[in-house]
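sorry for the late reply, my laptop died twice this morning and i had to redo everyting from scratch. anyway the thing you sent over, i finally got around to it. pasting the sequence first so we're on the same page, its 302 residues, then the predicted structure underneath. double check i copied it right bc i was rushing
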Amino acid sequence: MKILIAEYASALALGGTCELEGRAMLATLASSFQRAGHEVLYPTSGSTVEAGRPIFVTGEEDFAGSLACKADAGLLIAPDGMQPRFLEILEKNMLNLGSSPDAARLAADKLLCTRVLARAGVPVAEIVERPDPVEQGCHRYVIKPRTGCGSEGVRLTSFVRAGPDEIVTRYHEGLHLSASFIAGSGSFLPLTINRQLIDFQGDGMSYQGSQVPYNTPRAAEIWSEARRAAAVLSLSGYAGIDFVLGELPWVVDVNARPTTSIIGIARVMKEEIGELILDARLGRAAKKVTIEGTWTFRKADL
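ok and here's the structure:
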């Protein structure tokens, strides 16, 4: 098959770690699909990766145009707020290997996504609309953009004061983990649980890398909630859910697209990540994967 991998940050040379992470994800997926015998295409404004054939673009509209190229199937990696529009273009022209535009739109809206999961009984970092009573003591909250990627714009505070495009959730102490999986029509394939390396400085927090996989005796708990969340949100293809593991595995973010952890997963998993994604979309999902060893990476290493 001819597979398009459209990774936004590297295609438009956005700079910084976003571009480096994006190019690393692109290279990982392109190499995997190519090893499985597929022809790979990818948009870029100049830089290339070792696998696949580039489609040269000069801006966002060119990037959108590349989603209408002659390919059998496509996989999009873009900022959460942009995913729905780009996915609508991609779906009109080829088989979408990721989540639908509607599922991506819901996952991107952290307020609506949190409320939908809470109604379904999935443990979440609860939305806080007003300060807790003073007599209950000092409380900590997390303020983050309603639509945003990773830890950008996330800050810790003792005050419930958010801007018009931000939300406030309750802060939970615990281990920062992510669950990476592939969802298909009626299928759910666990890949790895990963430890997120988080840097806390002042009132800010930033994602710095991952340990893949992270072995925890509470894996069954995490996978149970990840499976339930994936079904509630109708996720498809590769997706990742961020948890804070404390008294409960609280969901703090949902990524309806490939995440940086895929770089490590491809290094420790015997199976080809590209073929697993394609098989799930075609209704022949694998039952399990083989993980050998661990791999830790930091964004600075990319």
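The CA atoms of residues 11 and 44 lie 4 Å apart.
thats about all i looked at so far, will dig more tmrw
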